[in-house]
């Protein structure tokens, strides 16, 4: 199972950006912010054996317009959300929250620079 975070209004912003911006600049902004979020998630995840940290990956989709950060160990969501026996130790959501404002700013800059 993967954790999914959503930024509201992204579809409208995406349509405007596609009309206004150089696709290469948008792709670079997505790649940069996806990479930074992956690094933050790795920095924030708790380390016991290091397996979780080593297995936080990223994937670019839709020709670089979509970036996905994910954790592959079967227990990753238990660490993130906790269980009735274990306190949550979030790493993905804080990484997302730390990155989202920067990502929006970078996308706007990419669009504005071409107007």
Provide an overview of this structure.
This is HK97 gp10 family phage protein. The chain has 115 residues and is mostly helical. The chain has one domain (22-110). The chain contains five helices and two strands, in the order αααββαα. The protein has helices at residues 10-20, 23-44, 51-54, 76-81, 92-112; strands at 56-61, 66-71. The protein has a two-stranded antiparallel ribbon. A hairpin with a 4-residue loop joins β1 and β2 (66-71). α1 packs parallel to α5 (92-112) and α2 packs antiparallel against α5 (92-112). The radius of gyration is 16 Å and the shape is elongated.
Task: Decide which structural class fits the backbone.
Answer: mainly alpha
Number of helices: 5
Q: Order of strands in the sheet with the most strands? A: 1-2
The domain tally reads 1
Q: What is the helix fraction of residues, given as a range?
A: 55-70%
Shape: elongated
Distance between the termini: 40 Å
Summarize the helix and strand pattern as letters: HHHEEHH
Count of individual beta strands: 2
